[in-house]
Specification:
The chain is an alpha+beta fold. The protein is built from 4 helices and 5 strands; from the N terminus they run ββββαβααα.
Length: 181
């Protein structure tokens, strides 16, 4: 029975969520499976992967072939590295302690890299929000200045119209006064 480590799609339309499973290679994608190894959510940034590394390493050791996407996920989580180190231990090239130390060092470096990527992403989002807020403030100030200029121009035009009306009212009164004499 050729076993495969592959993804089973779950979730709604346009909202995928995957289970990482070991299944017979002959069954349908979302069909019967032997064991669930973990989950994969590609919608988060970075993608959320929960995986039982020990069981995945055992299945790889037993000959289960991962699909292309599952291979990338297993590599990302260190399953393939752990399997590689275990092969070295089985051949006698390194001891189990050395293999565990190498894997833990790699795992710490990987976690630091992921944490740095998350913080960098958060800083980017924070800076984008700050820039948008500053741009919105500048736009609001420009609009407020334009409205103030328009109101000032309207007030000046109204004052000029009043002054012109008063001048027009005084002019006929001045003309009528000499005629009455």
């Amino acid at each position: 029975m050729p076993t495969r480590i592959r993804l089973q799609r779950h979730g709604k339309k346009n909202q995928p969520f995957y289970h990482i499973v070991v299944a017979d290679g002959r069954v349908p994608r979302d069909g019967k499976f032997i064991e669930k190894l973990g989950t994969y959510n590609p919608l988060t940034n970075p993608a959320t992967i929960e995986l039982n590394v020990e069981r995945a390493t055992e299945w790889i050791g037993m000959g289960a072939q991962p699909s292309d996407t599952a291979r990338r996920i297993l590599s990302y989580k260190g399953v393939l590295l752990k399997h590689h180190l275990q092969v070295g231990v089985n051949k006698g090239a390194i001891s189990q302690e050395q293999a565990d130390v190498k894997f833990n060092e790699w795992l710490k470096a990987k976690e630091n890299k992921i944490a740095n990527a998350k913080s960098e992403n958060e800083n980017k989002l924070r800076n984008v929000k700050k820039e948008r807020l500053e741009a919105e403030k500048q736009h609001n100030e420009n609009v407020a200045a334009a409205v103030a200029a328009k109101r000032k121009a309207a007030a000046e035009a109204e004052a000029a119209a009043k002054a012109e009306a008063e001048a027009a009212n005084e002019a006929p009164a001045a003309e009528e006064a000499p005629a009455a004499e």
